[in-house]
Amino acid sequence: MIHRRRLRSSWNRVDSGELHQAPRQWQSWLSDTGSLTQKIERAIGQKLEVVVLRDCRQNLNSDESRYFHFNIKRCRIREVLLCANGMPLVMANSIIPGRSSSGSNHEVLRLGKKPLGAVLFAKTRMRSKKKPLREIARLDKRNILWKKCFQQYQKLPAVSWARRTLYQLKGRPLLVSEVFLPALLNYPNN
Q1: Which of 186, 182, 136, 185 is closest to 155 using CA atoms?
Q2: 78 is known to lie in a ligand binding site
Q3: Smaller CB count within 10 Å for the chain: N or C?
Q4: Can you give the pTM of this predicted structure?
C-alpha cells in the first residue's frame, strides 16, 4: 500500500473554529467576506496608498500550488503594502497564474499602483456566485509566507495573522494572501 504524505499547512478554513484562536481584535478582519481595500478605506476615511514591493514571475511552493491542483509551477507574484499616510497596514501577496491574466483579464490585471481588490470587487467583474475559499493562519518565523513577507518588510511582528482567498476573475483563479500589520488596529473595524 502506498501512503501519500499530506501537505501540512498552517492555513485553516475560516469556518473551522480556528478563527476563535485569533485575538479578538483581528477576528472581524480575518472573517470579513467583502473587499478588504474598501473596508480599510472606510475605516481610514481616505484612499489607500499601494506600494509595490515586487511584481515578477516566480516558482510556487507546494502549499501555494495545491490551490491550482499542482499543474502550475510558475506564476506572476505581486507583493504590495497597503498604507495610510505612509504607514503599512496590510502586506498582500497575490499569485496570478499566466492563464488567469490572459485574454480579457490581461488589461484588467495591469494594476500599477491600483489595489487588486479594486479589480476583484468591481461589480462588472465578479461573475462567480460561488463563495470563494477563504482560510486564515497564525504566521510565525517558521511559516513560508512569514519569511517571504519579512524579506520585504523587516518590521513584521514575530507572530502575525493572515487570511488568504482563492478568487475567480472571469472564471480564472487568483490566490490572494493578506498579512495584517499592527498599525491596522489604530483604525475602527466596522
Answers
A1: 182
A2: yes
A3: N
A4: 0.83
